[in-house]
Design the sequence.
């Protein structure tokens, strides 16, 4: 059905220059510009309609917004444009995932043959069902601790084998391989292909993840795909997939979409990379940087060792330059003279002390001799003893017949008392 015929069916009068069946034949076709102009004029007659849907794409360029609006009950979508003059009149927080009602008018761009709807008004209806469901799941997983940094595994410094899950012949695969091999040419990959959107995305990604996680040679796994609208990235927020990633024993790197995309897989993975290129750069060290670092460390170690040896040599030379080590003989001779003087002084002191002690001993001996009973006996005295060796001091203690022992200077003799007491002169 031509545009001319469609306008009659809808009860509309076709434009004067509309393309009619008689205006174009195989031998005399109409021009693309005339056809596009007819379509534009026909669509321009359509009225503004209010439509309800969920925003799946919202890209701002030059102050204008280019996006897509999806039906809430099916996969039907339309392209929408919000000019900068209208953007200031709609809520500033509108974005991807929002459930909205918009006033749209069909628009056809003749130059590009592009059909879209221009938005003249838009307002919130509420969060889109998908976004709301994902936010509930995100909150539940956060409460379970699956987002905690403490449970995330450390990536190896230099992985020998990298597991890669991505779409077959995708740009993401090329980006990861190219950037990783530029940084470390010897790096090896084990790639498992999986659908990165649609119904096959989750089961195929789960199968690839299980295979790579069970491979003992794989040190780290990258799950990568290019950017896309939230509708195409829903598989990477699937609860089955994110729980499998959390339970994996191999470190997982999420490289889904671009910086603005944020599936739940990013929160559960051990490392989130903004792009596949960023994933390669963060997983594989740069061989040039590592060689430079090793060179710097070797130079630093050599410098420190040289400084230490030079310092020790300088200290040794300083010690050797001291007089005590350079010429020790004078010091020894000086000490020897001091030692001889000290020995002489010690001998004199000891000799004087011995002489003084000898004199004192002689004096004590003479005193003892003078006080000794033997000296008294030598002068003619005698000592009378009773039985048992008791010295007789009183004549009354020796009545008649008492046995006595008389000690004189040379020996002792026995005697007996007659009991008479003679008075002393």
Sequence:
């Amino acid at each position: 059905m031509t545009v001319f015929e469609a306008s009659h069916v809808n009860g509309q009068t076709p434009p004067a220059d509309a393309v009619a069946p008689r205006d174009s034949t195989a031998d005399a076709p109409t021009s693309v510009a005339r056809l596009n102009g007819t379509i534009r004029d026909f669509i321009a007659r359509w009225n503004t309609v209010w439509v309800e849907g969920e925003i799946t794409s919202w890209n701002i360029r030059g102050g204008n917004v280019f996006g897509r609006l999806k039906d809430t009950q099916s996969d039907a979508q339309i392209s929408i444009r919000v000019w900068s003059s209208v953007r200031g009149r709609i809520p500033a927080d509108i974005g991807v995932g929002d459930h909205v009602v918009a006033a749209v008018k069909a628009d056809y761009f003749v130059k590009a043959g592009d059909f879209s709807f221009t938005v003249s008004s838009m307002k919130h209806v509420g969060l889109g069902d998908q976004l709301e469901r994902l936010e509930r799941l995100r909150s539940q997983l956060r409460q379970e601790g699956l987002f905690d940094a403490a449970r995330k595994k450390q990536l190896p410094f230099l992985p020998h084998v990298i597991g890669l899950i991505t779409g077959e012949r995708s740009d993401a695969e090329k980006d990861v391989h190219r950037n990783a091999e530029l940084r470390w040419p010897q790096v090896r990959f084990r790639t498992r292909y999986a659908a990165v959107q649609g119904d096959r995305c989750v089961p195929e990604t789960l199968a690839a993840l299980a295979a790579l996680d069970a491979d003992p040679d794989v040190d780290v796994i990258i799950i990568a795909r290019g950017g896309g609208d939230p509708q195409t990235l829903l598989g990477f927020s699937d609860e089955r997939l994110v729980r499998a990633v959390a339970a994996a024993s191999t470190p997982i790197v999420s490289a889904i979409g671009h910086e603005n995309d944020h599936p739940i897989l990013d929160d559960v993975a051990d490392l989130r990379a903004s792009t596949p290129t960023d994933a390669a750069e963060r997983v594989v060290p740069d061989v040039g940087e590592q060689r430079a670092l090793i060179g710097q460390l070797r130079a630093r170690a050599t410098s420190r060792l040289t400084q230490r040896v030079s310092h020790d040599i300088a200290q040794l030379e300083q010690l050797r330059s001291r007089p005590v080590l350079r010429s020790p003989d004078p010091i020894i001779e000086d000490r020897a003279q001091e030692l001889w003087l000290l020995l002489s002084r010690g001998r004199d002191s000891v000799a004087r002390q011995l002489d003084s002690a000898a004199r004192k001993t002689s004096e004590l001996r003479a005193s003892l001799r003078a006080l000794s009973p033997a000296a008294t006996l030598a002068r003619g005295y005698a000592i009378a003893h009773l039985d048992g060796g008791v010295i007789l001091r009183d004549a009354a203690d020796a009545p008649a017949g008492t046995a006595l022992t008389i000690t004189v200077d040379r020996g002792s003799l026995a005697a007996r008392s007659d009991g008479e007491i003679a008075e002393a002169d």
Notes: The mean pLDDT is 84.
